[in-house]
Amino acid sequence: MSFEPTHTGRPTEFGDLSPFTLEQTEYRGRTDTPVRCFPVSLRGQVIGYLWASETEGAAGFRPRRGVGVVGFEAGGPWYKRLREARDAGFTAWEAVQLCVGDPEDPRGGHVPADTEALSLANYEAVLHLAAADPPPA
């Protein structure tokens, strides 16, 4: 028994796929452009970094190494807030700035109002910062 394909054409021969869209609904999760980020604290401990590009639609939360499930769970509230800000028409950097100074979320923590943004080369630098050994307590 041999297998006979029903279509032997190339993918471009399938016609218009216009009913399907690939609309971006969230900020991109990485960028090669410079980013600014804020340390996120929960009960006085830095658990991660909220970051964004000022020039591209890229933003996110990166948990800090060594905080375990707390850092992973903190991402949920941050990504929800970023999605809401994007839906409201804010740029990635504006969305992150809106979060500074808000009350502490019991899962996500907060960025205190007097926190200075760190300027980093790109998203890879955020990864390196988050992977660095935590400072001694």
List keywords for this structure.
137 residues; single chain; 4 strands; 3 helices; alpha+beta; 26% helix; 4-stranded antiparallel β-sheet; 18% strand
In short:
The chain has 137 residues and is α+β, with helices and mostly antiparallel strands.
General description of the model:
Strands 3-2-1-4 form a 4-stranded antiparallel sheet, with helices on both faces. The N and C termini lie far apart (70 Å). The protein has helices at 69-87, 92-99, 123-131, and strands at residues 35-42, 45-53, 59-63, 118-120. The chain is 26% helix and 18% strand.
Q: Kindly report how far apart the N and C termini lie.
A: 70 Å
- Unreliable spans are none
Q: What oligomeric state best describes the polypeptide chains here?
A: single chain
Helicity, as a percent range: 25-40%
Order of strands across the main sheet: 3-2-1-4
Major sheet, described briefly?
4 strands, antiparallel
> What string, H for helix and E for strand, traces the elements in order?
EEEHHEH
Mean pLDDT score: 87
Shape, per Cα inertia axes: globular
Total beta strands = 4
Number of helices: 3
**Any idea what the radius of gyration is?**
20 Å
> Structural class of the helices, strands and pairings?
alpha+beta
- Beta-strand percent range: 15-25%
